[in-house]
Amino acid sequence: MRWSSFETRRLGTLFMAYVDLCPFFVSLGRPHEVRDWAQARGLSPLAWDDGAPRLLQDVVRAVVDGGEPYEGPIGFVRETVFQRSVLAATCAIARGETRTYGEIAQAIGRPKAARAVGSALAANPLPLLIPCHRVVGAGRRLGFYSDGGPEMKRRLLGWEDVDVACWR
Question: Mapping DSSP to helix (H, G, I), strand (E, B) and coil, where does residue 32 land?
Fold first, then answer.
């Protein structure tokens, strides 16, 4: 597994861990998070790459800068079946739409697991590719966002023309 950084127009520097054209982890401008993520999963030290594969960079930029849905491979390391089901349901949310934690819980057949859905999304290793910013709290609450906090979530939803001006 390798890791690298590259620039995006909207969000600046992204750090990413990957194998070939398969991303495993993405972080906004925090290189230590990539190393921490790998270490927490018992992965051998990641090899620094001066440049991620151009095709992978282009695909990620199309998502981040152009709003395209990510349709490439996703690398999972230690995510549980529950976490993977939450992440898959999250991928199905279209640009410009939101779902509540409870709606995701309902969608995966675990209607009482809204809090666990929130925990699974907080551990999303690919927050810009698996659009967890589209999952919000009931009653128009933004909720948390693991890669930049609620203000980044507000910003990402705003780019998708979701009116979050009066959301808490």
Answer: helix
Provide the H-helix boundaries in the chain: 31-40, 54-64, 81-91, 101-107, 114-122, 149-159
Active site residues: 132
Q: In whole angstroms, give the CA distance from residue 126 to residue 56.
A: 14
Relative orientation angle of helices 81-91 and 114-122, to the nearest 10 degrees: 90
pTM beyond 0.90, yes or no: yes
Rounded to whole angstroms, the Cα distance separating 59 from 101 reads 28
Tell me the pLDDT tens digit for each residue of 113-156.
999 999 999 999 999 999 999 999 998 788 888 888 888 999 99
